[in-house]
Amino acid sequence: MPLTSFFTEEGWTSLRNSSKRIFRYGKLCLVLAVCSSLAFLWFYSLPHLRPLQQLYLKKYLLSFALSKSPVRINTTYILLVRTVVDPNGKEVIIGVTDDQADPFRGDDGKPVRIGQRGNAYMFRLHPGIEHKGFYWQEVPMANSEMASWFATNIYHDLSFVGLFIQGAIFGVAVFIVCAITAFVIDYRVNREKTEGKKIRGTDGSSPEKFLRKNKQNTGVGIEVMRLERSA
Predict the structure, then answer these.
(1) How far apart are CA 225 and CA 142, in angstroms?
(2) Assigned domain for 60 exists
């Protein structure tokens, strides 16, 4: 493929056109990458979360966001808890995790909703889990402590951002694949035009195909009058 110097008008024109194409390809690849990442999270990551992980996800986002705020305030969270009696005879409230309880399902196989607005689910503790009481409880707690508890006990030491790492990696991979594919296709198409295998313009056909389609066209002629010398 013959190279065109960027110090010529044709070279600068080619560079500007290439830059515009690359910019358009980049935007398209970015849109595809974002859509792919969101689809991965929606159809793979979220369905693979355990029951309490799914229920606490919005609360985890809230506590994580508020924990970064310079204003330190307590927020009331609704948590599934159990109570136990410590050696001193005092009743202690402990948060329940997915390793300790499963949602109770009805005859249709769906989790049973409870509460006046049906915004909670009925859970059943695993056999052998110590408890005196077992219920949903409103717990006022500092947001930084709540975010830390969610990360440690519910999400296995994953921060809220860490939950979406897989989706982000998938999106980056899609972007790279789309970008490479677009670059290769663009390179091949423009190489064929440069080498004369395709005619530039909207047709995009080869010279041979163009001649077959335009056999009756012999071109456009302009009659030029002969100049007579003046005496």
Answers:
(1) 94
(2) no
> How many other CB atoms are found less than 10 A from the CB of residue 154?
23
Backbone angles phi, psi at 16, to 5 degrees: -65, -45
Neighbours of 172 (CB within 10 A): 13
Local structure of residue 163 (DSSP, 8 states): G
Last residue within a domain, chosen from 157, 183, 205? 157
Q: What is the pTM of this model?
A: 0.69
Task: Give the residue from 135, 157, 179 where a domain finishes.
Answer: 157
Determine the 3-state secondary structure of 194 from DSSP. Answer: helix
The count of domains in the chain is 2
Write out the residue range of the structural domain in which residue 117 sits.
Answer: 71-157
Q: Is residue 123 part of a domain?
A: yes
Looking at the structure, tell me whether residues 148 and 165 fall in a common domain.
no
> Both 88 and 151 in a single domain?
yes
What φ, ψ does residue 171 adopt, rounded to 5°?
A: -65, -40
Cβ atoms within 10 Å of 206's Cβ, excluding its own: 14
For the stretch 1-14, pLDDT in tens is 444 555 666 666 77
Q: What is the pLDDT of residues 85-141, one digit of tens each?
A: 988 889 999 999 999 999 988 888 788 887 656 567 889 999 999 999 999 999 999
- Do 131 and 108 reside in the same domain of the chain? yes
| Whole-angstrom distance, CA of residue 173 vs CA of residue 53 | 27
**pLDDT digit string, tens, across residues 11-28:** 667 777 778 888 888 999
User: What does the alpha-carbon distance between residue 189 and residue 11 come to, in Å, rounded to a whole number?
Assistant: 17
In this structure, are residues 178 and 28 in contact, taking their beta carbons and an 8 Å threshold?
A: yes
